[in-house]
Amino acid sequence: MDQAIKRVAEKLKQADRILLITGAGLSADSGLPTYRGLGGLYNGQTAEGLPIETALSGPMLQRDPALCWKYLAELGKACLGAQANAGHLAIAELQRKKPGCWLLTQNIDGYHRAAGSPPERLIEIHGELAPLYCQSCGAVDAELAEHLSRPLPPRCRQCGGVLRPPVVLFEEMLPEQAIGSLYAELRKGFEVVLSIGTSASFPYIVEPLLRTRQAGGFTAEINPTRTDLSDVVDVYLPGRALDVLPRLLSHI
Ligand code: APR
Predict the structure, then answer these.
(1) Domain for residue 131, yes or no?
(2) Which atom of ligand 1 has the smallest separation from the CA of 24?
């Protein structure tokens, strides 16, 4: 593995334009549950016998806000109860060393911001858990933690409307601004794309890597379990983000 890490580090060192893609596996090392695979959130059904993707969907938030918020609150408590890890810090360090290093994350935990990744080069494609906003009057409410200890769904102080987090729920559209940034940067091209801790379940996650590969760029993946990308990338690093990323940075 050491040779492989050195090879990826060398490519990162030589590159200006880098895209890091992260998923729940990066925050698994902070103790947060992943969505798929072993112990994944999506493997089970909810207590109501619903698939979690139904409970955490846009239509459910409208139809039965208390039910949707029951599972949003679980995600919120997990995120607020943990923190960024050495993997997030290593990514922030790489972005400081490399002004052309962009970060595309599917995670809504906010740990990349907390670890110091520059917001202007952070694309949160599934949004973030906070601050909440009112679906009726648009008022912003930064007190997620307080609301989680009160009856759900959380309600707006101004108008009593149901609050929601700025996350992309199932059956909802991706944030236009995030998609716009991603494709604007993709059009400029990347020399290296590194997939970290994601099952690569969505086309907008796989596409940047495949386009870079087709354009002759270098691609790599960090994941303890093989994914559909593992046979596609130039280097597959079979390990945990928490172990691999700091070792990678030590060579840059
Ligand atoms: N280090 C690196 N990768 C890890 C680790 C770890 N310590 N632990 C687990 N993994 C890998 C798993 O092998 C898996 O491939 O992380 C991946 C997590 O995959 P998912 O649970 O599918 O999470 P993710 O790819 O981020 O899901 C994408 O799906 O429903 C949406 O909004 C949800 O953002 C999420 C998106």
Answers:
(1) no
(2) 26
